[in-house]
Design goal:
heterodimer; A: 248 residues; alpha/beta; six-stranded mixed beta sheet; four-stranded antiparallel beta sheet; globular; B: 237 residues; mainly alpha; MetI-like fold; 9 helices; 83% helix; 0% strand; elongated
């Protein structure tokens, strides 16, 4: 696919609570291209997570549209379950299924939704586990894993569906500091392999190193966006300057 | 001292003979036990199915606001069943609803106890569903599973595991509660003991025997639940 292909196009996205009293998102326009790594930063409560979670409709937007792969997924007639199969998501709190082994966590959706054979799904899952160095944990239960291991499993669980885009919602925020690195490494490898990624994070080092584009969100709006060099090296808006002075 | 024991033993064995062996009176207990088990087993099945359906409807309403009408009827069901005594429900079911239709007493009891148990199972399971972390639903949905599929594959197994002890307790209560079947003249275990009392005029033997049989059933049931719990807990090692 051409790197300039628009994979996700967001238009006028708004999310209001309490009949407009709280404006989590207040009109976001944004495009994410195939193969691009977009990192979304901003203060807490800025709406960055809401924005990311809107992309696969875990949050239902109040207004606006999201075009994914040429289809308007905010259209009530569109089958969101089908679209979600193509949008992997990784959560802050991993959300592994505690009653299933690692392997079962990874193969459940491919077997039930993509109608893959069990052998096929297992093979893919084991290969992916191999890549993230967890092949020997295939038959462990989530409670037997460390936080970093859980998050790596969560990433490959999403990858098992062969998504076109991966959404990361603060993937390292719930980790002990010494486990952040191993998760970021997996994400960097994924980016190198050309995966389209949208990442909400507080890891500015990761943003600087991996992002093609950084979006700064505050008060439900995109305040500034650009390459990591522009955002971190030459921030223009006072709010971004203020934010960066606090986090770096 | 020895004389006292000997005379006690003589009267005990005589009582035992009169109450259970003579004229095969033990069969009242055996047949009654069969009925009690039959009613309990089928009532449990109805209770589980009904309870899970009601629980899913109620918790879906609580979480998403959908199924408003279904939730309304479920609330009525829960209120009425939990607000009236089991014996009254059983008698209404028999004398008012099903007797005119010519329905068999055992079927009546199964339905009445099943419907009753369903209400308690529903409350237990609803609590279980609500206790599963919201992230589990989100993770399931984000993979592309629909609401129902996520419920089935991801939420319910976890909820079931969490509420198993409470469910087991409910079924133990249900089994003992079937002893009120005598109110519609159904020959269950309790009534079997009563029939023996009626002909032998002794209280001790039949009542203690009935009590011991209930106790044994509860202990066996508890044992199996413990086994099941241990199996389900394998993911928490």
């Amino acid at each position: 696919m051409n790197a300039n292909n628009v994979l996700i196009k967001v238009q006028g996205l708004k999310k209001h609570y309490n009949g407009g009293a709280v404006k989590a998102l207040d009109g976001i326009d944004c495009e994410i291209h195939s193969g691009e790594v977009v990192v979304i930063i901003g203060p807490s409560g800025s709406g960055k997570s809401t924005f990311l979670r809107s992309l696969n409709l875990l949050e239902t937007p109040t207004e606006g549209s999201i075009i994914f792969d040429g289809a308007d997924i905010t259209d009530p007639k569109s089958n969101i379950n089908r679209h979600r199969q193509k949008m992997g998501m990784v959560f802050q709190h991993f959300n592994l299924f505690p009653h299933m082994t690692v392997l079962k966590n990874m193969t459940l959706a491919p077997v039930k939704l993509l109608k893959k054979s069990k052998d096929d799904a297992n093979k893919t899952a084991l290969e992916l586990l191999d890549k993230v160095g967890l092949r020997d944990r295939a038959n462990a239960y989530p409670s037997q894993l460390s936080g970093g291991q859980k998050q790596r499993v969560a990433i490959v669980r999403a990858l098992c569906m062969e998504p076109e885009v991966m959404l990361f919602d603060e993937p390292t925020s719930a980790l002990d500091p010494e486990m952040v690195g191993e998760v970021l490494e997996v994400m960097k490898a994924l980016a190198r392999d050309g995966m389209t990624m949208a990442v909400v994070t507080h890891e500015m080092g990761f943003a600087r190193e991996v992002a093609d584009r950084v979006i700064f969100v505050d008060q439900g709006l995109i305040v500034e966006e650009g390459t990591p060099e522009e955002i971190f090296g030459n921030p223009k808006s006072p709010r971004l300057k203020d934010f960066l002075s606090k986090v770096i | 001292m020895l004389d006292a024991i000997a005379s006690w033993w003589a009267s005990f064995s005589n009582d035992f003979y009169r109450n259970f062996i003579l004229k095969d009176r033990w069969k009242y207990l055996a047949n009654g036990l069969g009925k009690t088990l039959e009613i309990t087993l089928f009532a449990v099945i109805i209770g589980i199915v009904l309870g899970f359906i009601v629980a899913i409807i109620c918790s879906t309403f609580a979480k998403t606001g959908k199924l408003k009408i279904g939730n309304f009827f479920c609330r009525i069901y829960l209120t009425v069943i939990r607000g009236t005594p089991m014996v009254i429900q059983l008698m209404i079911m028999y004398f008012i609803i099903l007797l005119p239709l010519g329905v068999d007493k055992t079927v009546t009891a199964i339905l009445a106890f099943g419907i009753n148990s369903g209400a308690y199972v529903a409350e237990i399971v609803r609590g279980g569903i609500m206790s599963v972390d919201e992230g589990q639903m989100e993770a399931g949905r984000s993979l592309g599973f629909g609401y129902v599929a996520t419920m089935w594959h991801i939420i319910l197994p976890q909820a079931f595991k969490a509420v198993l002890p409470a469910l087991a307790n409910e079924f133990i209560v249900l089994m003992k509660e079937t002893s009120v079947c005598a109110f519609i003249g159904l020959n269950d275990l309790t009534r079997g003991g009563d029939i023996i009392r009626g002909v032998t005029y002794s209280d001790f033997m039949p009542l203690i025997a009935v009590a011991l049989i209930y106790l044994a059933m509860v202990m066996v049931l508890s044992y199996f639940v413990k086994l099941l719990e241990r199996r389900l807990r394998s993911s928490e090692r």
